[in-house]
Amino acid sequence: MHIMKVISRLMDYPTAELQEHKDELISSIRQSRVISPEQREALVDLTNNIYDRELMDAQEIYTGLYDRGRSLSLLLFEHVHGESRDRGQAMVDLMAQYEAAGFYISVRELPDYIPLFLEYLSEGPDIEAREGLADIAHILGLLSARLQERDSHYSALFAALLQISGQNVDVSALRKRAAKEERDDTPEALDRVWEEEAITFGADDSQEACPSQSASLAAAAAADLPLQADPIHFVNASKTPSSTVQQ
After folding, report:
1. How far apart are CA 26 and CA 40, in angstroms?
2. Does residue 222 fall inside a structural domain?
3. Chain segment 103-146, per-residue pLDDT in tens
């Protein structure tokens, strides 16, 4: 689904490459008919908000949201099992689903990184993409609510995904819940995390450090965004790998 690939790009870390192709992003958004006119304009506003400013400023805003604390983590399973040890096998299962569809992660991201997952869904039939989003609708709603509480334009991404999923999630109720949550991105909160987390030595535990959800999270694969000849997070074994942005 074309618009999901655009949303994946906008949810990822801001880059000079995408800044150069901002008009293409906006054109793709405006051509979409799977989200409402109001939602399309919200995505256009977000795109302008990101890429009409100095890139370093946009990147600082991004890291301030997503890289401090866990409440806005872009790892799906963080919101399902937290630090549960169940997550290891689920990561293996999700990776196996990607590989079964002919996709291999070509960047250093965990399998449940939401932009990567969206890109995967965007490559498949629309009905399967909607089913994949429906499986994580509550997480999308919670992230949308938390971003709204922070007056962030990024909330438009998750609102659009909820609309595509067709799921009736009460974001207003989730926002009331979010309003009562203690912020986890303050210096004091971050210091507490450093104090509480155990120090580990030896092999890399990154696979173990990511929570899990059911294997039904993913669907299957094949479509293209004019912006990119091939997916940016995956190598598709059925195509010639390419990272070239079409001019």
Report:
1. 9
2. yes
3. 888 777 889 999 999 999 999 999 999 999 999 999 999 999 99
